[in-house]
Amino acid sequence: MKIVIVGCGRVGAKLATDFADEGHQVSVVDLRQTAFRRLPQGFRGQLVLGTGIDEDVLRNAGIQEADVFIAVTENDNTNIMAAQIAQVIYRVPKVILRIYDPERAEIYRELGLTVICPTRTVSEMIEQAVRSHVTSDEVR
Amino acid sequence: MYIIVVGGGKVGYYLTKTLVNEGYEVFLIEKNPVKVQLYRDRFGAIVMQGDGAEVATLAAAGAGRADVVIAVTGDDEDNLVICQVARERFGVRRTIARVNNPKNEELFRRLGIDVTVSQTNVILSLIEQQIPERPFVHLLALRHADLAIVEAKVAEQSPVVHQPIWQLPLPPEAIITAILRRGQVIIPSGQTTIEPGDELIIVTKQEREAELRQLLCAPATA
Fold it and tell me: Taking CB atoms and an 8 Å limit, are B78 and A77 in contact across chains?
């Protein structure tokens, strides 16, 4: 599979590393050259310097042939715009993005994007851990 | 009419000032607290500190009853999301986005933003209209209908000279709506003959522009 990842932070770098190790063709886009330091030595994917909301940059990353597009920069709005370019203009079959703000996450989920909202997911997991702790205490 | 402006840079500031003077009910949202303080001294309580892409901020600004939301921050991604949130969550009927990168105009339109304003393109088109010897000028794009209004100046050598309009091989989706000839405006019929120096005002499908340019301006400028 051809996978384009916008944002080479901790999450982007981990995804790029894992998918490249699995033999997928990976392109990583980031504004800062230093971000690519997060990738391991001998990383086989393509590195593209630039913003993920510029079509020229995305074409350099091979968005036209992409099967999967992932937007995981630190900026919700950048992810939203990049993902919509991938979905609406380039019709990438699978578009996944991260949105921290739960309200915006809901809006774009309704608009048909695959949205991961870490704020909601992580807080639910913590709440769950707290509740099960309380319950196990009560049982004891 | 209630208008919410998001982004208090130079554009947002002067826009708010102008709209207030025109008598509109205006509300300005700006992120930077220092600017907010400054603008409050000038405009009073119609300025709020906040992130206009957040649902809570727009709700506090009364987006539910806004007729228009105008996003004029310096970041295209923010302007896009502000307009989309206003439309999707608050049902704002008219959203206007400033586009900093002219390449984004088409994208924003396809993503449902009603009007985009690209300073780069505005200045470019002003320059094009000011240069007198350009034989073919794009005057206006009518977005929703995919139409354009263009002005073409007919050269001496143009193949259409001295021909009646009905004989011209015009593209099927183009119509000559007016002719400017020696200071007079002529509303043409099929029998009207084209003369050198005529300025033709043509309504055309946008994809036919290149073809028209070729027909009317060749070989003089081809």
Answer: yes
